[in-house]
Amino acid sequence: MRALGLLLCFAACDAGVKPAPPPPAPKPPGPKVIVTRTDFDLSYLPADSDLVFHFDVKALRAAKLWPAYASRTSKWLMRGLPKCDYDPLSDTTDVMMGVALESQHPVLVFHGIDRDKLMKCLRAAGAGVDPSVTIDGDFVTLSKSTGRSDMLQLVDAHTVVMQLDHPTKESFAQLVGSPLLADAAMVAELKRAPSGVAITMVSRPDSKALAKKWAIGGHVRRVSGTLSLTHRLDAQFVTVLGSAEEAAQLDKAMQGQLENAQVKQMFDRLKARAQGDTITMEVGMTEKQLANLVTMIDGMLGGVSLPD
User: Fold this and answer.
1) pTM across the whole model
2) Which helix H or strand E contains 60, and what residues bound it?
3) Fewer CB within 10 Å, N- or C-terminus of the chain?
4) In which band, very low, low, confident or very high, does the pLDDT at 57 lie, cut at 50, 70 and 90?
């Protein structure tokens, strides 16, 4: 399932697309949004989040392919959690994730987790394991032998906030309430996101950090993506650039990549269209193609299945 997250980022940033014949009239940049999203709980997400992800874990668990990727997903989302008999994702309904690209302190908010079961797991692990577990009231620090540490806060019976990469209680204090709600532009982007998908990604409009880190041949103003998992994988990625000229140039540069026979074999659907300043890509993969992608990514990472 980590491959799904990587696919979201890879395709939004640097994927090639198959050239489409020029349409006689402009086409819409993606599926028509027929509902306004009101199900995103922005509590505890950083005010400076450049990227926000929503993982509908209930929808993922209902997918035919979920058993093949459940363990990977749990290890990726609950990074650094010691092994025990309790799998937090078995109770999780959804996960919100905020990533501030400059601070590099991603925050994940898990809804639905059973706090008592999780605390029992953490207390059983203790300090003699890797990662070592230090419990201080509602705060739990997970310290790896590599020197990296993450922190959890169990804020109520069914909500857990995880901050990655050397957080402190002071950094957690900045997450109290819903600081991201103050960003009207980001909230508007989230409300426009299509519903009925397993994973949603939305960027802050005109994020300077995003434009700097995702330099893809033009000025990236915003990106978004959706991913559905059933008996197959289907995803859509939208990139808005600084101008129509930049979008056309990027579209032209990517077209040749999709003529590669190996690339074509990776997908059973790979379409793209440029309209104005926007490039929309649609990706579809069968069960076998997804499994092959996961194997390929593992090989690229030198056999390391997930980062610690």
Assistant:
1) 0.83
2) helix 57-62
3) C
4) very high
